[in-house]
Structure formats: C-alpha cells, structure tokens
Hints:
alpha/beta, six-stranded parallel beta sheet, 11 helices
Amino acid sequence: xxxxxxxxxxxxxxxxxxxxxxxxxxxxxxxxxxxxxxxxxxxxxxxxxxxxxxxxxxxxxxxxxxxxxxxxxxxxxxxxxxxxxxxxxxxxxxxxxxxxxxxxxxxxxxxxxxxxxxxxxxxxxxxxxxxxxxxxxxxxxxxxxxxxxxxxxxxxxxxxxxxxxxxxxxxxxxxxxxxxxxxxxxxxxxxxxxxxxxxxxxxxxxxxxxxxxxxxxxxxxxxxxxxxxxxxxxxxxxxxxxxxxxxxxxxxxxxxxxxxxxxxxxxxxxxxxxxxxxxxxxxxxxxxxxxxxxxxxxxxxxxxxxxxxxxxxxxxxxxxxxxxxxxxxxxxxxxxxxxxxxxxxxxxxxxxxxxxxxxxxxxxxxxxxxxxxxxxxxxxxxxxxxxxxxxxxxxxxxxxxxxxxxxxxxxxxxxxxxxxxxxxxxxxxxxxxxxxxxxxxxxxxxxxxxxxxxxxxxxxxxxxxxxxxxxxxxxxxxxxxxxxxxxxxxxxxxxxxxxxxxxxxxxxxxxxxxxxxx
Length: 518
C-alpha cells in the first residue's frame, strides 16, 4: 500500500500529497505522549490496524481514524471570521472552505470514507525505562498486510503527574450542549455517565479545574424563593470520582453592555447586584452554595467564577460582588477571565487574555511579583494570527501557546470552549454561530460528540502535549534559564510570532530533552 508519515504537529488534509517519509520515528518524555499521522490509499474494505512492539514494554499505543471536519470560513484579521481571503491569506493555512483532519475516532469504529488516515499515539508511564523501542504498525486488508516501521525514543525527561503539575487549566463546559448533542435527557442516568467521560477527557488533557453548572433559581408566582444546586452537586461528585483536582463554581452574574458599570444576577437581569434586592438574592445564593460545599467537603478544592470578563468600566462593581462572595464563602479563591488590572483584592486567580496580558504586561508583572496568581486565556477576539485553537491556523499554535505561557512564567491557562457544539452540523461547519456572526473554526469546541462520549481532536492532542511541554520547560528554567529561553525563542517570541513548521517545534523539544537529561 502506498502511504506516507507525517508529524503530529502539522495539519493533514484529505488532499495532502505524500510526504515521501515511510517510517514512524518520534520521541516522548516519561509521563507524556508522542505521535504521528499516517496517510494512505483508499481502503478497499475495513482494514485491521494494530501496533506490534519488538521488545517487552509498558508503552501504551493507541490508533485512531482521522476524521475530516469542514472549515466553512477563515479566521478574520481582527475578530471572528471572513470570506475575504485577502484579509487573512498571510496567516491562515488554507482558503476556506476546506476539510482538515481534526477529529479522532477509535479504530474499533468503522473507518470514515475517503483516504486511509490514521493517528498513532504512544504514551509512556512515569516509570517507563528510557531508551529506544522499535516495532511496526500493521495495516491488514484481507490477505494483504502493510508493515510500517516504528521507532520510539523515550527520554529521561519526566512529566510530573497531574497532582504535581505547575500548570493550572480550566476549560468551560456546556451542560445543555451535552444533552443536545448526545440526544439524552438532561440529568438522566445516561447523561451523567456521558458527563463522566467528558470529565475524564478533560483530566487526560491535564485540566486541573472542572467547571460546574451554577445553581438554578426557583421561582413561585414570579417571586424568587430558592436555589437548586442538585445538578452542580452531582457534577462535582462525578468530577471528583473521575480525578478532578479542583472544582470551579459556575458564573452567577454579568453586565448587560461591556461599558456598563452594573452587574446583574443571571436569574434576575433587571436587578443590579449593588441594590438591596440584589444583595439579598446573592446572600440567599451563596448561603445555599456554602451548605453544598461543606456537605461534600469541597472547601479545600473549590474555586469560584463570579462574572466572566470584568472590564475597566465595571471593575469596581466586580470588587463589590467579590466582597459579597467572600462574606459567605471566605477562603475560596475567585478565578475569572479579566480585561482590567484594577481588581486588587477582588480576585485571586487573574486570567487576562493573551493580548491583554502583553498590552499591560508591566502592570500584570507587578501584580505577579507581589504574589498574585497569574494565568492567561484565549478566545475568538482578537483573531488574526494570534495563537489560538482555530483550525485554519497552523497546528503549532495550539501547542506553542503553552510555550509562551512558560516563557512569561504564567501559571495557568483557560479556554471557554471545551464542548460548545453550536450550530446544525459542526462536522461540516466548524465555525459556530455566535451573536449574528461566526466564531473561528473550532473555537467553541476541542472535542466532538461520539456515540457515548467525547471524541478527541488533533488540537486536543496538541494542547495536551503543550501542557506536558510546559512542565518540562518550567523544570528546565531551574537548570538553565538562559538556555531554556533560547529554546522557547526558537519556537515563539510572543503570542503572534511563532513557527508554522511542526518539525521546528519537535526539534526544539528534543533540545529541551537534552538539556534536562544532561
């Protein structure tokens, strides 16, 4: 069978030409993973694929079908998307519309139609012996078998377990979307079983925090009488059972307009939180939420989001909201994406957007130097070439974004879109609708709905690898800060300047391995 091998750091397309590379070779750290993509001919039938090692090893090899996903519009130069290719041709990978291999389906499922496309992922345990392991990938069609040589080098470099990670991570979760995309009733037994698999996928991606749904307001004759936290409590219990380190309470308020000073509770959009009625409603909410936290003994593993993206126009009101929260739930850290530097005392985990951080870097660095915890986040704005998980940006951006996090010594990463399956068909239209426009391709989700749970993506694998790289880079800074910065600068120098070549990133990681080994 005619086939070619590609790295796991570059996009592969249904019309990609053969690379000429016929052997799978890659390296990975202990406690981490590495991979490669295989592109071949159209299979005559459902092929049988497997991995055979030549030595006894505890390496875990997994094979997935690569599933093409349609990118219907390109990322625009400023925000959202565009159909004007001239506006984005300098930074996108292809002119939309096009298909790209992003979704991953286990080879136990039927292969998609079209060319044979595979992703091989190899994972090493923390106790795996360093060295080079050889084997082959077998692709069998009837009596015909193709054997692809495989060589996998396991470095001495060690990625710590999630419980010892330096990088915090939070990806927002769409609880309504889970029910809609998996055609199940919300809060049914099947719903919560599928939710557990989504939590496992987040934990495997090295998410340290799992977002819970907020409490639901209970009204009687138009009057607020109570809050129901049963869904939040169930989600938290399942998240802890599936390895979550931290839980994060869902947002409870927002502004009507970004330049407005007031905040409003999600359940009462006409009641400002600075009014007496607003305070009394928040008092009832936080008192009930505190009972749930104490009943489950979550007080030492709980964080809280209050209101997403406070701006300079409403940061003073946000601090009032934070003060009310701290009265009823003292000691629980507040975490939010922020668009201002004026939240001192009102937030514990600052999460500025990547361009916001670089714009006000001096102020944020002053806060960080004083002991404040500083994360960062990405989303649909700004668009353009800035690092994000968009499917028409180089795949390196999904991974190198965490190299920049290490470069700036930021201690966590947030993204809003883990599974927001918005639109009629995310398989053909990855740019999901939002407020009359379209989000950049894949911005709303990094997994896909499978039969009984989430399907991972190549962007998921890239972000997971970036989180592993982050841990190694932070360890390397302790050994040689200057050499570590040089390694990072060969990949990226700021959030807009990064390599588009996957091999450049992999070569830099090999130099990182060498620094840690020596």
